[in-house]
Amino acid sequence: MAADDVTQLDAAMAERELARLAGILNRANDAYHREDAPILSDAEFDALRQRNAAIEARFPQLVRPDSASAFLGATPAEGFGKIRHARRMLSLSNAFTDEDVADFVAGIRRFLNLGPDSPLALTAEPKIDGLSLSLRYENGRLLHAATRGDGETGEDVTTNVRTMAEIPQTLTGAPAILEVRGEVYMSHADFAALNTRQSEAGGKIFANPRNAAAGSLRQLDPEITRARPLRFFAYAWGETSEPLADTQSGAIARLQDLGFPTNPLFRRCDTVDDLLATYSGIEAQRASLGYDIDGVVYKLDDLAYQDRLGLRSTTPRWAIAHKFPAELAWTLLEGIDIQVGRTGALSPVARLKPVTVGGVVVSNATLHNEDYIAGRDSRGGPIREGRDIRVGDWVQVYRAGDVIPKIRDVDLARRPDTAAPYQMPAHCPECGSPAIREPGDSVRRCTGGMICPAQAVERLKHFVSRAAFDIEGLGAKQVESFWRDGWIASPKDIFTLKDRFGPGQPRQLKNREGWGEKSAQNLFDAIEEKRRIPLARFIFALGIRHVGETSAGMLATHFGSWDAFRAAMHESNDPDSAAYAELISIDGVGPVMAQSLITSFAAEATEIDRLAALLSIQPAEARATDSPVAGKTVVFTGTLERMTRAEAKARAESLGAKVAGSVSAKTDLLIAGPGAGSKAKKATDLGIEVIDEDQWLALIGAG
Ligand code: IVH
Predict the structure, then answer these.
(1) pLDDT above 80 (res 385)
(2) pLDDT for res 69
(3) Which sequence positions are flagged as catalytic?
(4) Which of 571, 588, 618 marks a domain boundary?
(5) What's 277's domain CATH number?
(6) Do 315 and 331 fall within a single domain?
(7) Per-residue pLDDT reduced to its tens digit, 558-612
(8) For the chain, how many structural domains are there in total?
């Protein structure tokens, strides 16, 4: 069929054809660019690309995320250098209701010990739906620009940013070092015009302005970025050699004076009611702003207060995003598939008739678990007033922020007579092992363990994921294919891949379909590079149930080294041991996580040790080594008079101390306020140093 034949296609045919074209074009593109071994002639390639573009122009709602319509729009991320941010780029926690906002403000007051009548100003501004960018200026000149990446390291997009008219190249009167942060976005008008041009030229059609902005910024050819109108709002900063101002509003005014675009809807508010009124005002203007926003961000105005509140692992305590209600759409539930996750959980996934929700085509949604489908919550109470969900139903889909789409409701009036209640399978669909729901667990789990292919593969995918080993060139797709062929059965096999399939071996990676000399060597190098791995990442990579990125970070900071952590996990096996007591005294580690850690280490001791032996696991950095309390375990007891307990704890932790809840032989220092009781006595008995609040503040240089 020639490119212009697409008028004959119906939507279902178009969808299948786009899937087929994505497969061929992506493979051909890799073969051409990464292996220097084209599998299609230029003419064949162009014909397929044009056909793909023509179908996409007719069925824009079917454009696939992996569409290869224009490789202009599909720049490989490997093309960019990496930049380590001088200060982490943060994300925001979310509020969804007025009550969440009131709680946020009340929490700040509590933390700072401010009474209800003390003034407390906050700022409110739109949350721009684009991608965040950090601009580093030194001595008034733009030195580099980086995307957020994982928050610690982003991609170097300096050359492209230099083509953006709204971003100043030079500054007058700025601090010698200044990192300006903000959002890159594309206006609705520019987005529509870009898609028209793209479709005329047979190029990639973007699903929404945010994707268009991201695709345009992450271009290897800066001339393409120049031709795409990207805009910018500054709303935050990273490293600065001197403070910009005393307040958030002052700092934003300063950034504006320096020539950065700042959002005109930015307001300073004195009360929760003020914040909520600003929210409603911004929401009312949402449709006429001309660019996408997905909520309102509130920040504490006083920067000294911001400093006192500090950060959780990746979000500040002094800011929150108040999200707009999710966008909704009704569609047909065509089927329910079961996915088996890394911990064996059987997750029902809704297969939907594709529908656009908030600018994105949705064809899958999570159904959580069998109770959710049945219309019950985890305690047996009704959800959706007890309405269950059946295949063949019309269901209401919503997306809240970036998360996986969910199903909110079902239309019983449109239910076909043939629709039957959904039955969760009693066996794992992947390995056939019994799937069992333990009392107290909300999900049914496959009991196959590592004999279950799905669990094994999901664990491998988790292991190489971005927050874990993050090996360039070894993503979910590659892992799956290596696993299928028995090249990698468990994580440790990744680190012997070169010995088994490298140069000089009978079977070699470079001869595998889709690989070549160069890409194989690149992968071996990337694996080699990741043998050195920070402890926190390693713990997270193990994929232990209940141990997420934040907990892994806390465990790493607490134990410091792999040897100490490993020993503690084995020693904690006895619930009466000091090791167990220490483990559950760690902030954020409860009995459930502790048990999960202990069980995993007991069950997989050999596998974990073999893996660790192939690696160089880097000790966790003591967070602030120059502070006199770094690495010390401290306990607060009694009443603190000059700050709240929460602030004392956050401050101590930011100086590298560990804050424990109870006194033990490991305690280095007890800070006792008036009314201290048994803890102070125990500390004295154990010969632990006891000081009062003033002495503590003097010690940390805050007296
Ligand atoms: S402040 C201090 N302000 O939202 C924390 N972020 O969900 C830094 N965003 O990664 C963020 N508009 O990309 C802030 N007015 C605004 C924003 C905003 C959009 C984005 C930003 C951030 C994400 C967090």
Answers:
(1) yes
(2) 59
(3) 127
(4) 618
(5) 3.30.470.30
(6) no
(7) 899 999 999 999 999 999 999 999 898 887 788 899 999 999 999 899 999 999 9
(8) 5
Domain membership of residue 192 as a residue range: 82-323
In a domain? residue 425: no
Residues 262 and 209 in one domain: yes
Q: In CATH, what number is assigned to the domain containing residue 26?
A: 2.40.50.140
Cβ within 8 Å of residue 291, ≥6 positions away: 128, 129, 185, 186, 187, 188, 209, 231
Q: Is residue 419 a part of any domain in this protein?
A: no
CA of 325 to the centre of ligand 1 (A): 18
- 297 and 175 within one domain: yes
Query: Could you give the CA distance from residue 70 to residue 219 in angstroms, rounded to a whole number?
Result: 12
Residues 489-507 as b or e (16 or more Cβ within 10 Å = b): ebbbbbbebbeebbeeeee
For residue 586, give every residue at least 6 positions away whose Cβ sits within 8 Å of its Cβ, in sequence order, or none.
554, 555, 558, 658, 660
For residues 575 and 481, membership in a common domain is answered with no
- In sequence order, the 6+-apart residues with CB closer than 8 A to the CB of 494 are 463, 464, 469, 471, 474, 488, 527
Of the listed ranges 32-41, 219-228, 614-623, the one predicted with least confidence: 32-41
Going from the Cα of 315 to the center of ligand 1, the distance in angstroms, rounded, reads 10
Cα three-residue angle 250-255-261, rounded to 5 degrees:
120
**3-class SS at 14?**
helix
* Ligand 1 atom with least separation from CA of 129: 19
Q: 442 lies in a domain?
A: no
Q: Work out which ligand 1 atom sits closest to the CA atom of 131.
A: 13
Is residue 187 located within the same domain as residue 284?
Answer: yes
Instruction: Count CB neighbours of 93 within 10 A.
Output: 14
Which tens digit of pLDDT belongs to each residue from 632-673?
899 999 988 888 888 888 889 888 888 888 888 889 999 998
Does residue 160 register a pLDDT over 70?
Answer: yes
Going from the Cα of 132 to the center of ligand 1, the distance in angstroms, rounded, reads 7
CATH code for the domain of 598: 1.10.150.20
pLDDT given at position 70? 46
Q: Whose CA is nearest to atom 21 of ligand 1?
A: 132
Does the structure show a pLDDT above 80 at 394? Answer: yes
CATH of residue 649: 3.40.50.10190
77 CA to centre of ligand 1 in angstroms: 23
Q: Are residues 48 and 97 in the same domain?
A: no
Which protein residues touch ligand 1 with a CB less than 6 Å away? Answer: 90-92, 125, 127-128, 132, 148, 183, 235-236, 297, 316, 319, 321
Is 93 in the same domain as 147?
A: yes
Does 542 share its domain with 456? no
CA–CA separation, 296 and 323 (whole Å): 6
Ligand 1 mutation target, pool 94, 127, 210, 307, most atoms within 8 A of CB: 127
Alpha helices in 76-131 (DSSP H): 98-112
Atom number in ligand 1 closest to CA 94: 7
